[in-house]
Amino acid sequence: MNVLVTIAEFLVNEVLSVPAYLIGIITAIGLIALRKSAGQVAGGALKAVLGFLLIGAGATLVTASLTPLGVMIQGALGAQGVVPTNEAIAGIAQEEFGAQVAWLMILGFVVAILLARFTPLRYVFLTGHHLLFMATLITIVMASAGMPTVVVVVLGALLLGILMVSLPALAQPWTRRITGDDSIAIGHFGTAGYIAAGAVGRLADPKGRSRSTEDLKVPESLRFLRDSMVATALSMVLMYLVVAVAYLARAGQETAFGAFEGGATGVGNYLMQSVTQGLQFGIAVAVILFGVRTILGELVPAFQGIAAKVVPGAIPALDAPIVFPYAQNAVLIGFLSSFAGGLVGLLVLGVWLGPVLGLALILPGLVPHFFTGGAAGVYGNATGGRRGAVAGGFVNGLLVTFLPALLLKVLGTFGSANTTFGDTDFGWFGILIGYSARTGVLPGIVLLIVLGAVLLGAAILMQRRVVDTGWDPSPARAPVGAGAQAGADEPSRPATTHPRVAPPVGAPTPPPPPGE
């Protein structure tokens, strides 16, 4: 009997409670269900385990890189400075909540598949890394509010599953405006920013007169920003240098040099250590991304194969870069406009909202602004042409600045981690579940169930009354493909007179527009 108890304790404490091993087991089960060979099952499971361990290694590097920056921002500006990076905060949280996150993510996928099977929301969310990030957010927020572990996992999985089928439906009218049909949906937790961009795009060009961004020629010198590791490292180096100089000017050499472990030997060494730390942050995020991709390279195919058998006629909800090939100039315009919105938001936080509400300063990072701002530019261009791309990207930049600042209030001890979740849906949803959960265990459970029911009901209503009826969010602009079919110039179709920006590595190939 003691032997059985010992074995059970070993399995629970040393295997099922270790997120890396848990993910490996789940991956193996999925691959077995798809009737893969023994070698494929073993190799896939091992790669998933290694990927999770890579996330932990990257998180250690992120923490080491952000510590001096936090000291310098606090000293130079007198306020906490935060760099929103989903990979960083998710990696840091794995040490404390790894097992809960893993279970929540897995059960959340099961809930989403059941909802897709038995409701009109036939969307299968396949952006695996965002499932991991949202599962991490829900776990942090509910656990920080004092919710029991069972409630966090079960109720959190229900909320995650609802999000996975609801958000693609809410954005589908605008996504269809881009793609021309319902063959794909957006499966990315920046959906609120994309809907806002599409809505603002129409307001910026209500009569449909603004020409498409694809009639512009984008300088080749800006195209290197598509590389996420380069963009991350560059943004952090610039941020480090600006803050380091400001801290040096305000605090003096003796204090400023102490920001780094072991100190700096001179001004030149101080500045170069800042450059090194910025580069190391880029490396750290790249390590985490590689770990995430390693996990998902095995886990997502298993999920996708299972979903295809369970949900006939499912619409794949894919990562933000899925819309990039439809309007590639809009990607860069949206990114630059979003970054400008982030700078304006930073100014507002520093001068007004920060002192009044006690909010941290949200520093704009190139990677979140590139991916969410770029996609927002595409959505804005679809409804408002060039004006829509600029306005949509700018609004997205404001949202990904103010929402993370407010989100920090419900992250518990992680609110002082010098990093947070960056995309819009993490912000508004985290705030809602955070303050709901803080009302107490029983009232919090009731409020969270109501929140999930309202979101699911709104999505079903949107699907039946808007998506299924073919509502066009920008009727003044010609439909996708109409100009080509009529032989006229089509402002919403990409121009082909200049080199095109290739979508990021791993972005799915979109279906051809109608008529091709």
Structure description:
The protein has 15 helices and six strands. The chain is mainly alpha-helical. The strands form two sheets. A three-stranded parallel beta sheet has the order 5-1-6. The chain has a three-stranded parallel beta sheet with strand order 2-4-3. It is globular. The protein starts with a helix and ends in a 30-residue tail after the last helix. The model is unreliable at 481-508 and 510-516 (pLDDT under 50).
Helix content range: 55-70%
Strand content: under 5%
- The count of DSSP E runs of length 2 or more, i.e. the number of strands, is 6
Q: Please, what is the average pLDDT?
A: 83
Lateral arrangement of strands in the main beta sheet = 5-1-6
Q: How do the helices and strands follow one another from N- to C-terminus?
A: HHHEHEHHEHHHHEHEHEHHH
List keywords for this structure.
single chain; 516 residues; mainly alpha; three-stranded parallel sheet; globular; disordered C terminus
Question: What are the SSEs and their pairings?
Answer:
Blueprint: H1 2-16, H2 19-33, H3 38-77, E1 81-84, H4 86-118, E2 123-125, H5 128-144, H6 149-179, E3 185-186, H7 191-204, H8 228-251, H9 253-257, H10 267-310, E4 315-318, H11 328-357, E5 361-362, H12 366-407, E6 419-420, H13 424-437, H14 441-467, H15 482-486
Parallel strand pairs: 1-5, 1-6, 2-4, 3-4
